[in-house]
TrEMBL record:
It is a multi-pass membrane protein. PROSITE patterns: MFS (PS50850), SUGAR_TRANSPORT_1 (PS00216). The lineage of its organism: Bacteria, Pseudomonadati, Pseudomonadota, Alphaproteobacteria, Rhodospirillales. It is found in: Endomembrane system. Keywords: Membrane, Transmembrane, Transmembrane helix, Transport. Its main location: membrane. InterPro entries: Atg22-like, ATG22/LtaA_families, MFS_dom, MFS_trans_sf, Sugar_transporter_CS. It comes from the Bacteria. PANTHER family: AUTOPHAGY-RELATED PROTEIN 22 (PTHR23519:SF1). This is MFS transporter. GO terms for molecular function: transmembrane transporter activity. The keyword Amino-acid biosynthesis does not apply. Residues 1-423 form the Major facilitator superfamily (MFS) profile domain.
């Protein structure tokens, strides 16, 4: 049984990386890019969607390969450290994106690199779960991690709102200067620095106190050769892993629906309901509260009843909230159904991670979570792509957001055929 310090440190990595999702890809920088940099919410949404599609393709190609290589090399921390550092650096670089269309290409390049590195770090992070805790605690610890992650996003958003977006001057009165002295919309651009610092600081406990897998003694080139060979053998003999395959395909669809909502939720709130940055951040704070509560609340159900029932309940709940949300015209109803939708985000994601950990054969966690990333991204670029195409075709963000319903329905239907391993 691992120490409590190791489990807490593992969960804190979710707390750390949540800053990137909440600040950069969902609620602040994506909205700033569309409104401030591009200057047209519809065009900005389409360009952001195209960048997320490019990132998704890169993640799909790299994640299973690197996961298999890490399984052969043994250690995962060096890979996580590399990709965490890349994410932090390219997130910080967003500070230099001015509210000028000329900076749009630089902004998207930084976001694509940071997003790819972020997702690859998570491949190795998730793969450490089966070796960290016994099977009877997989659902609980996975749920705790997701829940703590949402509350980490909440804390970061509160700090962004109070200390940056609404503050008349930089936090702590840095150098006695006003935001205007730092350039146009400096208070918004500085939230990227906050996200980078938050991620780097709170990721440290993971690297200090979570035990790594033992090294196999294989050099990088040998691990790469054997990893590629193992991955190809797994793909050739896919029938041996039939239940894994069913789950990977089913989860790819519903995860794409969730990822599309989280990636474009801030843009939808800003463009359709005219929310300001301050209102979007307040909404995001409320959303993180209910999402974190949902992830932690369903964690015990995962260990008691299984991950599959949790996933099915979460998908049914998200679908039931999405339909009236898309039809809402008043902000009150938007808030009610959006928070209801958020309640089921965490359980679906946490239970998916714990089920993948249970299905992964011994010694193949990295490869399997790499394939988890592959299937998610193989289908995953369709979400942003369809969102962007529908938004442009109908000149409506509602039409773009409606595409997620198809992903939830397909994921639910395919998930019914997945058999959870004996507990």
């Amino acid at each position: 049984m691992p120490s409590r310090r190791a489990i807490v440190s593992w969960c804190l990595y979710d707390w750390a990386n949540s800053a990137y999702n909440t600040i950069v890809t969902t609620f602040v920088f994506s909205v700033y890019f569309a409104r401030g940099v591009v200057g047209d919410p519809v065009e900005g949404t389409a360009r952001w969607s195209a960048a997320m599609t490019v990132a998704g393709v890169a993640i799909a190609l790299l994640s299973p390969l690197l996961g298999a290589v890490a399984d052969r090399a043994g250690r995962r921390k060096p890979w996580m450290a590399l990709f965490t550092l890349v994410t932090v650096l390219f997130t910080a670089a967003l500070w230099w994106v001015r509210p000028d269309p000329a900076d749009a290409a630089f902004a998207l390049a930084c976001v694509v690199v940071a997003t790819v590195a972020f997702e690859l770090a998570n491949v190795f992070y998730n793969a450490t779960l089966p070796g960290l805790v016994p099977a009877r605690l997989l659902g609980r610890v996975s749920g705790w991690g997701w829940g703590i992650g949402y509350f980490g996003g909440l804390a970061c958003l509160v700090l962004a709102l109070v200390g940056f977006v609404q503050a008349p001057a930089p936090l702590f009165g840095l150098f006695g200067m006003e935001w205007a002295d730092w350039g146009q919309q400096a208070n918004i651009r500085a939230t990227a620095l906050l996200a980078a610092a938050w991620y780097g600081l709170f990721a440290l406990p993971y690297f200090l106190w979570v035990p790594d897998e033992p090294a196999t003694g294989h050099g990088l080139l040998r691990a790469a050769r054997e990893g590629v060979a193992t991955l190809l053998a797994t793909l050739r003999h896919a029938r041996r892993y039939r239940e894994v395959g069913r789950f990977l395909i089913a989860s790819a669809f519903y995860r794409d629906g969730i990822n599309t909502i989280t990636a474009f939720g801030g843009l939808f709130a800003a463009g359709t309901f005219g929310m300001s940055f301050e209102e979007i951040l307040v909404f995001a704070i409320a959303l993180n509260v209910v999402a974190g509560a949902g992830a932690i609340g369903f964690a015990w159900m995962d260990d008691r009843a299984g991950a599959k029932p949790v996933i099915l309940i979460a998908l049914a709940g998200m679908t039931a909230c999405s339909v009236p949300l898309l039809l809402a015209t008043e902000r009150l109803w938007f808030w009610i159904f959006a928070l209801g939708l958020g309640l089921f985000f965490g359980p679906a994601q946490a239970a998916g991670r714990s089920m993948m950990a249970r299905l992964a054969p011994p010694g193949m966690a990295g490869e399997m979570f790499g394939l988890y990333g592959l299937t998610g991204r193989f289908v995953g670029f369709f979400g942003p792509l369809l969102f962007g195409l529908a938004t442009q075709a109908f000149a409506s963000q509602r039409a773009g957001m409606a595409t997620v319903l198809a992903f939830f329905a397909i994921g639910f239907g395919l998930m019914l055929a997945v058999r959870e391993p004996a507990r």
